[in-house]
Specification:
Length: 609
């Protein structure tokens, strides 16, 4: 279970201990967050709504996939087209899925082709924590951050010898294995983790009985050195495997995928008031039809490639005891190439950005201002900004305000792929957020958050017509999402409860229709119990009806789904966990024409040292 900060001023409880035992938890009560700003800040100093999910919470959630974990947080609409390994989309506060920026260890992994990240290819075993910032983050990270950012941090630290081995399995002939080792001291730290998962899956399409299997192998490795003025870190992360699916002709097909990140990060304190940080990375995403598929040996040679090199140089200058200025430059060299359904392209794009952020605080006030100027080779110069602040009315009550703009350049697939439109304009947005949060001691905490996001030139795919047999992407002049977000969380002895509700109106202001795949109402709740040597919990998601697409009248009905989990320590080094997905075997729809997971039991045995 994770307590969520609906407001950026919330004190997020990062362990699963009761409130009365907070002083005994090894986790800080006020986690240090970097993703929401360019420098580390306590969670209650961040003006934007932020969620932190720790490693402990990931493990004890019982989730088996990243989309399966995130869907139990209100305001995050998740849609998966048919099960393990199938394409997954996430809509943060009604923004398009391609408007959500996903980072792995600070490196952008949104594909340059369709613009969406490969969430379905990420295994939970190697993830240390997940930070989600709701609202525009383009001023911090550039294009794709209109709706928000999801920063996934993999395992990457060790001050002593750690080792773990895990095995598991469950329905759909699912098996998973994981192992890792790490060691280090104050000077050198190193480690590596490998995870493997294989499943036969289930039929992704309602019109076909054919199941779609999924194979994934993930490697995560790091090497960190302490240098006289700072640190140097080398990271390698990659996810490779095969995804089976059913094509438009209801024939079996499969594709191979390979996602890789190689990054070098350096931090150096040059003077007492000046520190500098470098992040140099290479990201590659390759999708290709499996030419060796025995079930369908005549697959087309379709493929999609994204290769992105980035360099970011950030400088932090202490202007005074209450004023910190951060300024930097970011360079991005991206190549995208694709051949899909006979449509091919090969594009190369440079993006250069300058950014600055000022963090000023005095007594009960804090103000954060961010500016970014980007020069995109295809779409020219654009400016993004964020202005946010918070006021501590009392030590237990806070008000936050956040106001910002966002920008997203159309992807190569948007312009030149299947249904592409080379005349597309960039998307832009303006969002304002007003929140209040109240800590109530042993009675927990309560928060309310009001938000409004106006998006211009929203890109939508319109279905096939006589003029455009493949369909076509077009800009909507104006779209707007208004909403309110409520949250409550508390701990009573060994019990922890959480409840979140979002009511929003995601609307196309031109046609007056509700935006596709976004529910107007959603509710999540969880109840967890912990005892010495074990834990158990249950999570609920209630999602309202929503239009399936902008070019049909199909309405995906609302649904309620329940997951349950229990774990026990068998000994000091051994533990056992069982999770039951969709406890009541509810038949529900996330994408019309595609199946969702029925009741499924999974177990996992872990040895750790």
């Amino acid at each position: 279970m994770s307590f969520r900060s609906t407001l950026p001023l919330a004190l997020l409880l990062t362990g699963l201990l009761p409130l009365s035992a907070r002083a005994e938890t090894p986790y800080p009560l006020n986690p240090i967050v970097v993703t929401a700003t360019r420098t580390p800040l306590p969670l209650d100093a961040i003006p934007q709504p932020t969620i932190v999910i720790t490693r402990k919470e990931i493990r004890e959630s019982g989730a088996t996939t990243v989309p399966g974990l995130l869907r139990f947080y209100a305001g995050l609409d998740v849609a998966t087209s048919g099960g393990p390994g199938q394409p997954s989309s996430i809509f943060i506060r009604g923004a398009n899925s391609a408007q959500t920026l996903v980072l792995i260890n600070g490196v952008k992994v949104n594909g340059g082709n369709i613009g969406e990240p490969p969430l379905q290819n990420l295994l939970l075993d190697d993830i240390q924590r997940i930070v989600i910032v709701e609202g525009p983050t383009a001023a911090l990270y550039g294009s794709d951050g209109i709706g928000g950012v999801i920063d996934i941090i993999t395992r990457g630290s060790a001050r002593r010898l750690h080792a773990h081995v895990g095995v598991g399995g469950g329905r759909f002939r699912t098996t998973d294995e994981s192992a890792g080792i790490a060691d280090g001291n104050g000077t050198v730290q190193a480690g590596a983790d490998v995870s493997h998962e294989q499943t036969d899956g289930f039929p992704p399409q309602t019109a076909s009985p054919l199941s779609a299997g999924f194979l994934n192998t993930t490697l995560n490795a790091f090497l960190r050195f302490r240098i006289p003025t700072g640190s140097l870190e080398l990271r390698q992360w990659q996810s490779t495997g095969q995804t089976d699916y059913v094509d438009f002709n209801l024939e079996p097909a499969s594709e191979d995928y390979n996602d890789r990140i190689l990054s070098l990060a350096a931090k150096s304190r040059l003077t007492s008031g000046w520190s500098s940080e470098w992040l140099i990375s290479r990201y590659e995403n390759v999708l290709g039809q499996n030419q060796n598929d025995v079930l369908n040996p005549n697959q087309s040679p379709d493929f999609a490639l994204t290769r992105r090199y980035t360099a970011d140089w950030q400088n932090n200058l202490v202007l005074s005891g209450t004023d910190l200025l951060t300024a930097g430059i970011s360079l991005e060299d991206e190549r995208t190439a694709s051949q899909v359904f006979g449509t091919a392209y090969d594009e190369h794009t440079w993006t250069r950005s300058l950014y600055a952020e000022n963090d000023w605080h005095w007594r009960r006030f804090r103000l954060l201002a961010t500016l970014r100027h980007s020069d995109n080779e295809s779409f020219g110069s654009h400016n993004e900004w964020n202005l946010g602040g918070n006021v501590f009315l009392t030590p237990d009550s806070r008000i936050s305000v956040s106001w910002g703009s966002g920008f997203r350049a159309p992807s190569a697939e948007d312009r030149f792929g299947f249904g592409g439109n080379p005349l597309l304009a960039p998307e832009s947005s303006h969002e304002v957020d007003l929140g209040f949060h109240q800590e109530m001691g042993t009675y927990g905490h309560f928060g309310i958050d009001l938000f409004e996001d106006t998006i211009r030139n929203l890109i939508v795919y319109l279905g096939p017509t006589a003029q455009y047999p493949e369909g076509i992407n077009e800009n909507i002049d104006r779209a707007q999402i208004k909403g309110v977000d409520l949250t409550y969380g508390a701990g009573f002895g060994p019990w922890r409860i959480r409840a979140e509700a979002v009511v929003q109106d995601p609307r196309d202001l031109v046609s007056g229709t509700q935006l596709a795949r976004r529910s107007r109402r959603s509710l999540t709740a969880s109840l967890h119990y912990q005892w010495p040597g074990g834990y158990a919990g249950v999570e609920w998601l209630a999602s309202g009806p929503r239009p399936d697409s902008p070019y049909t009248t199909t309405i995906d009905p609302g649904y309620v789904v329940t997951d349950a989990v229990a774990g026990i320590d068998l000994s000091r080094h051994w533990s056992l966990q069982a999770s039951l997905v969709n406890v009541f075997n509810v038949a529900y729809t996330e994408v019309a024409g595609y199946n969702t997971e029925g009741r499924a039991l999974f177990f996992h045995v872990l040895w750790h040292y």
